[in-house]
Write a structure and sequence with these properties.
With 419 residues, this protein is of the alpha+beta class. The protein contains 10 helices and 17 strands.
Length: 419
């Protein structure tokens, strides 16, 4: 069963990247709360589209690299092994799926080109990346070739499912700002051909170009929608404790990637979902020094908000007094315990939360954490990943003991950049 047949056609961004998406979509603070209330005799939801593989065929220091991705995946390796590069490639693919231009997805394309890549006769150099998304349509594979020099553009793209090429694009005329696209039709005309812009992902534009009147067209749409939904909602976070200590103005209540507005988010979420807040308090109790009975936030006279740990004996410790590792641990726990309604992400508005997966990218996840904090955070990530609504891809410098947790995938990288 395709995504379209489950909940109607998915709205994919128009070329300006805004169509069909609310800047601050409504919804519960926790994405999987409705699933807990499902009646026992209700039919199960279709499988949520999710990314199961990242491929860096020729990207920066990676060549022919394939990263299997589970519900909770850690990229492990020494400095210089390419962990951060892999996460940036994933985030760039998510941006392209969300309607960003290739320039927005790759703001510094020169560093993406393999260092030893030689230019062709036209002095062109580039890179190749891709991924596979599983879901109702089965595995759907996307491969993208990007030219970085002399000018940035998408020069080739291929979308395949079940051994059938559903979309293929190629740069035929370098003088034109378009690629020639051909997509599967399976009607009286087996293939439809048309030009597509060379600065955007063709897969994300297909719902704007394909009518869906034949079985072949509907198959193309379902595969494209699955891939876009799997990639679209990504939250890249790297908590910066130095920016989390101060009081912050009351704002949108949506957590930023550096988590510097943590107090504002706690001010909003503490009363929205008591069950999730109780789990955050339990996480803080396990990973922070001293007794913890609550994680609170208070509005100050100047209109700012500060966050505190309630010690239960009349003492309330401002987050500004916590250690570096404690703040990172607390912020990452909050990320794993919330959903798109709280995090600064761009979900597909028309897709119910029960059919979406939030991808969390956390570079240097174990930075500053002690063994207890790392173990607690790993267990939390594995539990949330098992529920299906969050998938974590994080990089760590020390993988010891991680693979012993059920549901955790560890991908080892060496300095040769080969996983």
């Amino acid at each position: 069963m395709g995504l379209s047949s489950v909940f109607g056609a998915v709205s994919v961004p128009s070329p300006d990247g805004r169509a069909g998406v609310a800047a601050h979509p409504p919804g519960p603070a926790s994405a999987d709360e409705p699933a807990e209330e499902r009646p026992g005799d209700a039919p199960p939801d279709p499988p949520r589209p999710h990314v199961v593989e990242l491929r860096l065929s020729a990207f920066a220091g990676h060549r022919r690299a394939v990263f299997p991705l589970g519900p909770c995946t850690f990229l492990a390796g020494p400095s210089g092994s390419g962990k951060t590069t892999a996460l940036r490639a994933y985030e760039a693919l998510a941006g392209l799926a969300g309607g960003r231009t290739v320039g927005e997805a790759f703001p510094d394309p020169a560093v993406c080109v393999p260092e030893r890549a030689r230019p062709d006769a036209q002095r062109r150099r580039g890179f190749r990346i891709g991924c596979t998304a599983d879901g109702p349509e089965g595995p759907v594979r996307l491969d993208v070739a990007v030219q970085a020099e002399p000018e940035l553009r998408v020069v080739g793209e291929r979308l395949t499912a079940g051994g059938v090429v559903l979309l293929e694009t190629a740069l035929r005329d370098p003088g034109r700002r378009s690629v020639q696209a051909a997509w599967h039709t399976a009607g009286q005309t087996p293939v439809t051909r048309a030009p597509l812009p060379d600065d955007r992902l063709g897969t994300a534009l297909l719902p704007l170009r394909v009518a869906g009147t034949t079985d072949g067209q509907r198959r193309v749409l379902a595969a494209a929608e699955q891939l876009v939904v799997a990639l679209r909602s990504v939250f890249a976070c790297d908590p910066v404790p130095e920016r989390m200590r101060a009081e912050v103005p009351v704002g949108s209540g949506r957590l930023l990637g550096a988590c510097d507005n943590l107090a504002d988010v706690l001010w909003r979420t503490r009363s929205e979902c008591t069950r999730r807040h109780a789990r955050l308090v339990a996480a803080a109790r396990a990973g922070c020094a001293g007794p913890v009975t609550d994680v609170a936030a208070e509005l100050l006279a100047d209109g700012t908000v500060r966050a505190l740990l309630d010690r239960g004996d009349g003492v309330r410790t401002a987050l500004g007094r916590l250690g570096y590792g404690e703040l990172r641990y607390l912020a990452l726990s909050l990320v794993l315990l919330t959903g798109p309604g709280v995090l600064e992400v761009d979900p597909v508005r028309e897709v119910p939360a029960a059919l979406q997966t939030l991808g969390v990218l956390a570079d240097g996840l174990d930075r500053g954490l002690d063994p207890v904090q790392r173990a607690e955070l790993t267990g939390l990530a594995a539990r949330m990943g098992a529920r299906g609504h969050i998938r974590l891809v994080g990089s760590v410098s020390d993988p010891s003991g991680l693979a012993e947790t059920d549901g955790v995938t560890v991908v080892h990288l060496g300095r040769d950049r080969t996983p």
